[in-house]
Amino acid sequence: MGKNLPVRLKQFIRKETVFCASLILALLSVLAVRPDEAYLNYPDYRTMSLLFCLMLITAGFQWLGAFEKLGHYLLKRAGSLRSLSVTLVLLCFFCSMIITNDVTLITFVPFTLLIFRMIGKQEKVITLVVMETIAANLGSMATPIGNPQNLYLFSASGLSMEQFAMAVLPYAGLSLLLLLAVLLLQHNEPVREIETAVPETGKETGASQRVEEKGQAAAKPGLSLPALLPFLCLLILCLLVVFRIVPYVPVLICVAAAVLVINKRLFLSVDYCLLLTFLFFFIFIGNLKRIPALDDLLFSVIQGNELWGGILASQVISNVPAAILLSGFTENVSVLITAVNLGGLGTLIASLASLISFKFYAAEYPGRKGCFLKIFTLWNGIFLLILTGEALLLA
Q1: What is the spatial distance between Cα 374 and Cα 358, in angstroms, rounded to a whole number?
Q2: How is 168-202 classified by DSSP, letter by letter?
Q3: pTM value?
Q4: pLDDT, tens digit, for every residue of 263-317?
């Protein structure tokens, strides 16, 4: 066991690189600013509570098989390779607005790989997985709950829905058109017996499978309105918090209590490393702002350069940490929301959700990792170039 510890530690660092980096930055900042009562004011507790609740709720939907059922229903109506591809990409684009980009990819990328293997079109799947990844990252920008950076920036900034919509909808709209253009221009061919390619209903994928692997004991109640209703009600409560209609503390207690009663194993599916990453970045930024020289320097560098700062920072540290970091040194949150969402395009680590697609594809086709990275980088670069051009024109 002792010999395996370094290996496990190395694997953990590789898997949770951003979390480890945020921990190191927080610890270094503590050396400069001694912990005191002011530390309690650093975190945005509302955002972290919402993120925790939404992860529990989406895990509940996964557990019930709601997203797989939706996918099965739509795919049975696909009669050609083109319509099949369009259906899968649109599922990723629109589902990501509600269940976040990472949960969308966890759900539909394995689903896609299975379908294309069963219909014998494995050579066509690599571009489709890349398009699904782009669709999930760009579709998620359209709502305040679509991804963690939107949830944080919308919650912490006090932006109105109109201001938020102006910052994201022009780019989400063009993204949808670009995705459809790429898919509709591809060579079309019939797909026979598409219904046989659909996995069996109730077969676990994604987050629900992770819960099962961690010791899920509760039997699935099956997908029905009575089973869905509690999670739908909890989702509505969370949306009321997002739009600042109800306070977050009662909703946090309500969601936690409901999940505890319905299926306490869903707590195992929460990404606690992401929550801690938020916490450590809050500590790091809070301490930086208490060092006058650094606070003035960073504010002068970032203010007025939010678009390029958000896009470039995302390429290196991914867009969620970039959003948290840069938000502490600018007042132009609208531009920053645009920047970090567009910044999710580009490198593989620009959006950590993209790593999910890469891991699934690499596990299925280990000899084609390099090919995936080339195609991924090419299409992400094209989308980033076009959408950045749109941002510059609108600015």
Answers
A1: 12
A2: HHHHHHHHHHHHHHHHHTSPP-B-TTGGGGSPPTT
A3: 0.78
A4: 999 999 888 988 898 899 889 888 988 888 877 887 888 888 899 999 999 998 8
